[in-house]
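Handoff note, outgoing to incoming analyst
You'll be picking up this chain. Sequence as last confirmed:
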Amino acid sequence: MKHLSFFAIAITSIMVTSCSKPLSTGIRTENLDTTAIAQNDFYQFACGGWMANHPLTAEYSRFGTFDELGLRNLEQVNGLITEIAGKSHPQGSVAQKIGDFYNLAMDTARRNAEGIEPLRGTLDEIAAISSREELSERLGAAMEYGLFALYVEADACNSTMNILNEAQAGYALGEKEYYFDEDEHTTAIREAYIKHIARMFGLFGFEDGDRRAQTVFRLEKRLANAALNNVELRDPIANYNKVSMAELQEMVPEIDWNVFLSAMHIHTDSINVGQIKHLQECGKLLAQEPLEDIKTLLTWQVIDGAASYLSDEIYMANFDFYGRVLSGSEEPRPLWKRAVGIVEGTLGEAVGEMYVQKYFPKENKQRMLNLVHNLQSAFGERIQALEWMSDETKAKALEKLNTMTIKIGYPDKWRDYSKLDVDPSLSYYANIQRAAKFEQEYSLSYLDKPVDKAKWYMFPQTVNAYYNPSSNEICFPAGILQYPFFDMSADDAFNYGAIGVVIGHEMTHGFDDMGCQYDKDGNLNNWWTEEDKARFDARTKVMEEFFNGIEVAPGVHANGAFTLGENIADHGGLQISFQAFRNIARSSSLPIFESSNNEFSPAQRFFLAYANVWAANIRPEEVLKRTKSDSHSLGRWRVNGALPHIGAWYEAWQVTEDSPLFVPAEKRVSIW
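Most recent structure output, in case you need it:
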């Protein structure tokens, strides 16, 4: 839809205007643990019942309300796909592609019979490389391996146009800390990873797996050493380095960029090099390391990337490390879930179109629009009331808020999959490669062209939401617009506490420590006065230091700098949504909810609904993994870490200085 104007939005009571029958409270008492004291451990009080009723099964390293709703959506999508997969369809039709891809994914007998043969051609191509001069062409032509990534995205300083972007890659553990941290857990991960590499090489017929594993790890560690860490990657200015192709050739002379890009069928005048030091290290590695060692790394990348699409033996060996060791899962996902996931990843919008037709009522979209409008109004009120921000910066902030684009449910225009060719006569892996090539060509089709503002970056069935700084837009797919996030039959206390905070969270991303560096048009452009930005940074530092002090596991603390943007968004979402809820409550009389000798006021139910969104059980291994890799705080701390900075929570639950969660008013975060 078009840009919204804050000043044109009228606050309305959804309770009065949207429904003719009485609404429920939305609170499910079975989710609560009333033996816990809310003021001492609000997460346990609000979510303890849910956690007790949803113990982790062998499949999961973490299972929360997001996963519960995602599983429900997955089952619905599976029903749609299996109905298609059981019938024949015209060649080239979307139904044929969905059905054949699903059947290929389900056919483990065929994959077991094929063994490693689907990779034979690619492995032979790597083995045949005989000189360094060939590397530029091979790296450009291949999708199966690489030392860095290329993609097309809006120019951060000219958001109306797409440009070619480069990003660090080439090390399979993903987080550079896994290669260097010396704590006992990380050291064990490294040792297990090297053994895993050796095991996989053995499964592919290489007799010198141990030597190859050491080579792979040494080269990956070299690349990781030159990479930025996750905190450094959050600096959009430091990661924007637009250069001409001539400058790129001078910056990394070891790669023949004309040959490399020609092999990718890319013709452009400029590129944004995301992480210069890492890309330069890639060039040095290609020039300095023995050719056979480079080929060993490329071979590993092919094996590692293909393992999920080959025989059961190879799949399980891959799971043993990435599932069991890294995350703590005891069993892999059932085959049908993996198959549905592949179809969604390949033909996601086509599946989404079927999903919304059957499962997303149009009235849900209208109620969401009302919620968004009311939150946008409340955010504007809060900006206008800020004592620490000057009128000059307030005007710019309101301008950005008022021009924020809102996307709800599903795209207005569905994606065209006519150029994707799914051929069941070929192997599953070959079709995966075709799908990857299709995605690459789709991305490159936008190169040096105007940004498509109507494009979605999530599928409609996805249980998530996002803010995109380059287009200044918030998006809420149909998949998340269900309980426990959104309930058409529940009253405002519930919906503002749940989906309302999600909406406010995404809005606040436009004004977190990263988003605030983009202007209303999505360009990296400072719209702050120097004094206001210094005040903002000082206030966000309070948030960073507070989360640094949280111990997520014995001897392991949260990373306040890494999670800062998400923590700011949680804080802003709570403040904005509660203000919007308070505005609504002035014109609506909401009931007291009585249950099991407990009475919950509307304000209390707001915070219960919020906490329930983050209910989850999680394995110790996954806690450590997410602390390194996830920019979001763990669910427990999105409740017990966020709420102690919200004045309305203290009032609603009569939280006093005696509470272990109590934070003195002068030490609380106060931003938006």
